[in-house]
Amino acid sequence: MQPLKRLESFSGPEGPVVLCIMDGVGIGKGDAGDMVAKATKPNLDWLKENSLFATLKAHGRAVGMPDDGDMGNSEVGHNAIGSGRVFDQGALLVKNAVESGDVFDGDVWKDLTGSLSADNSLHFIGLLSDGNVHSHINILFALIRQAQKQGIKKVRVHTLLDGRDVPPTSALEYISSLEAVLTEINDLGEFDYCIASGGGRLYITMDRYDADWPMIERGWQTHVRGEGRKFATAKEAVETLRAETPGVIDQDLKEFVIERDGTPVGPIVDGDSVILFNFRGDRAIEISKAFDDPNLDRFDRGPIPAIKFAGIMQYEAEQQIPKSYLVSPPAIDDVMGEYLAVSGVRQLAVSETQKYGHVTYFFNGNRSGKFAENLEDYVEITSDLVPYEQRPWMKGAEITEVILDSIEKDKHDFIRVNYPNGDMVGHTGDLLAVEISVETVDLCLGRLIEAIKAKNGIMIVTADHGNADEMYEVDKEGNLKLDSDGNPKSKTSHTLNPVPCYIYDASGKAGFKLAELSDAGISSLAATSIMCLGFEPPADYDPSLVELK
Ligand SMILES: O=C(O)[C@H](O)COP(=O)(O)O
Ligand SMILES: [Mn+2]
Ligand SMILES: [Mn+2]
User: Fold this and answer.
1) pLDDT score, position 89
2) For residue 522, how far is its CA from the centre of ligand 1 (angstroms)?
């Protein structure tokens, strides 16, 4: 890779360029559920008056999702921001591979399904919803139907309940569609297909960034050992757990194990095959390691069954997690971080645990590790392990202080930061907490603006997708959906809304104006950042939002 060329008329600001990603802070419709509009945010208001302002697409095809009905998410958002281009993403690659049948012609599928004895099971573990962020239920159905076509006698499904990328208490709808498919197959007479275990995605199995390994341990005990609270059906489990904890949402439901005649129906045992059908990496890496890494010492797995394990996708290429996979991930190359590293730009990436991998691993095209040890600092502030509605400020102040220190001491030329608040608190569905989360981010931005002014830097403030901007469920006509008591239903998932982009040049010396772009997406943020640093963007990057006057 060649270093970037300098712009002729602008060689970068005196101070640093700071790219602030306000995770989950989109532009809503200003209605009752728009907590971004509702929040008191003097600093974002000030930026609106004093910056170049653009509105960016952050969902659907603009971030490589199958279609424009798909909301954005952090993986595809940070991939687009960091790589400056739009790659077809896991959701689409897996859909295509399954629909074309290519996935079933591959060696891995054949190996996992071809070697099963009649007594052994094919297990599917994954997130049971159509959120299309980590998984899609239609993919699970296609895998199950193919297993049946191949005459596999026993299938066991380990269902992680969502309520985070889909409505908060929708689990029973997905369970009943799955049960319908399983019953149809069992009715043929020679098959034994059933749900074996499950639990809320935030309680078992789907931890990320090493935040909470006990979640993985609980998932292992539940899926592999069949240890956990026993029920006759998944429906009974969900109904009982909900009745015992009024107000609980699906992502937080405890584990359950399905039993028949007093015995768990589907522990994972020697000779079985296991497919993790989530395509997104962050929350699939730890459980993959539990199956795949003989040296893992994060918890005591007990005797490890001799099984074949594959992910539907490879989640981390360099470390080969997992070793076997059904579909190749998008090949995201030549990302901005690498260009800046070869161009000698000193970089800082900072967030707290929950989003640390977003500004490093996702931002660098799903790669862990740095491009240049001597030029890059990656800082992780340890997240509190609490329900974030109880602490909507999260680690905003601590993150901000790392950046202030860098700016003050002139440590870095390019700083990228993710403030998780709008998203992490948005996923809880607690409106007051969400309002406070947006106000927290605003407060932090205020401190950064002062530092940027003092050093004549440039600040780009944007988001990877919406969440806090739409906290009530609305129907297709835009009317609020109401619960049985007539109250608006809270919404915990991301939104289809665009996101803001404020470009604030403290000294005004860059001499930028907004480029005339129609339909720009967040993939334009890489070229924009590169121009703000005084370089020409690579020719194949999506166009910069600014141009020289
Ligand atoms: O994993 C999650 O928390 C949600 O499914 C998506 O949120 P993110 O894409 O903002 O991380
Ligand atoms: Mn996000
Ligand atoms: Mn999110």
Assistant:
1) 98
2) 17
Beta-bridged to residue 53, according to DSSP, are 502
**Residues that place a CB less than 5 A from ion ligand 2:** 23, 74, 423, 464
The encoded tokens of residue 232 equal: 């006759």
Residues 397 and 358 in one domain: yes
- How far is C-alpha 9 from the chain's CA centre? 39
Q: Answer yes or no: are the C-beta atoms of 98 and 143 closer than 8 Å.
A: yes
DSSP, res 536: P
List residues near ligand 1 (CB under 6 A). Answer: 23, 73-75, 133-134, 164-165, 283, 423, 427
**Domain span at 181:** 91-327
Indicate the residue among 303, 327, 351 that finishes a domain. 327
CA-nearest of 487, 491, 395, 523 to 59 is: 523
Is residue 11 in some structural domain?
Answer: no
Mutate to test the pocket of ligand 1, among 278, 423, 437, 464 (most ligand atoms within 8 A of CB): 423
pLDDT digits (tens, 9 = 90+) for 228-243: 999 999 999 999 999 9
Q: How far are the Cα atoms of 267, 279, 394 from residue 115, in angstroms, in the given order?
A: 18, 24, 48
Last residue of one domain, picked from the residues 272, 294, 327: 327
What average pLDDT does the chain have? 98
Three-state DSSP class for residue 352: strand
Q: How many CB atoms lie within 10 A of CB 184?
A: 14
**Residue holding tokens 């399983």?**
182
Annotated binding-site positions:
23, 74, 134, 164-165, 201, 208, 280-283, 355, 423, 427, 464-465, 494
Determine the distance separating the centroid of ligand 2 and the alpha carbon of 211, expressed in angstroms.
17
Name the pTM for this structure. Answer: 0.97
Structural domain tally of the chain?
2
Residue 407 to residue 47: CA distance in whole angstroms: 19
Q: Same domain, yes or no, for 25 and 131?
A: no
Q: What is the DSSP letter of 223?
A: I
- In the prediction, which pLDDT does 518 show? 92
Parallel, antiparallel, or unpaired for β 121-128 and 376-381?
Answer: unpaired
User: Residue 390 has what DSSP assignment?
Assistant: G
Which residues pair with residue 495 across a beta bridge?
466
Distance 265 CA to ligand 1 centre (A): 31
Residues 153 and 301 in one domain: yes
338 and 234 share a domain? Answer: no
Q: What's the token pair of residue 496?
A: 């289809």
The reply to whether 186 falls in a domain is: yes
Provide the 8-state DSSP code for 343: T
